[in-house]
Amino acid sequence: MISRRALLTFAACASLAGPARAQARRLTVFAAASLKEALEAIAVAYGASGKPELVLSFAGSNQLARQIEQGAPADLFISADEDWMTWLAERKLVAPASRIDLLSNRLVLVAPAGHTPVAIDATLDLAALLKGGRLALPDPQAVPAGKYAKAALMQLGLFDSIKDKIAGTENVRVALMLVARGEAPLGIVYATDARADSKVSVIGTFPADTHPPIIYPAALITTARPEASDFLQFLTSTRAQTIFTAHGFAPIINAK
Q1: Same domain, 95 and 219
Q2: What does the CA dihedral 32, 201, 45, 213 come to, rounded to 10 degrees?
Q3: Which of 30, 144, 213, 228 is disulfide-compatible with 81, CB 3.0–4.6 A?
């Protein structure tokens, strides 16, 4: 017969092992802020079939890459540009064979809802449209959306007129928020971000040839748990790609 003390010991061990097993089954995904709604929906679809729980961490790709370099525990990284993924690869922090080009996006000019659309070309008087306010823009020195935006503005010859009128933000969602709150008259974000807030309108789309292609690469961190490769593969599945498409992304799926 099992003693009462043995039962209590077993119960205590089980209560400790339960959370440990649950923690072991969790996968941590670091992803660009613009992926928030789409990836949250994909996480639900993935978990519905008894797969490991996903812990999603969203921020600017530059912030996430630096956190990974500093040892933050992550299994998978999805960047909003190739530069930050390559930056990690050069430091041997992602598994090269796992890297894929997953998605693409478009760059748009947004304003509070109801604003009149404009043509985005070299004749646009962007400074006048600001009416003394500032252009909400992710940090053009580091954040992918800001880098794409600066490239587009320079290509069109518009950057010099607004370079002193930029409200720099830590990621694309903060830029969107400033416009939605009326704290900035205009902002440059991804087309998918604009869909996430009904308080803003897209008033123009930047021509694709004015900036480098917007590519979202994904890769496993070198210390990733084996289960993470299953989720990376799920991201390329028809089910996941349908969700991405529904949120405005364009799948590309090119293995590196």
Answers
A1: yes
A2: -40
A3: 144
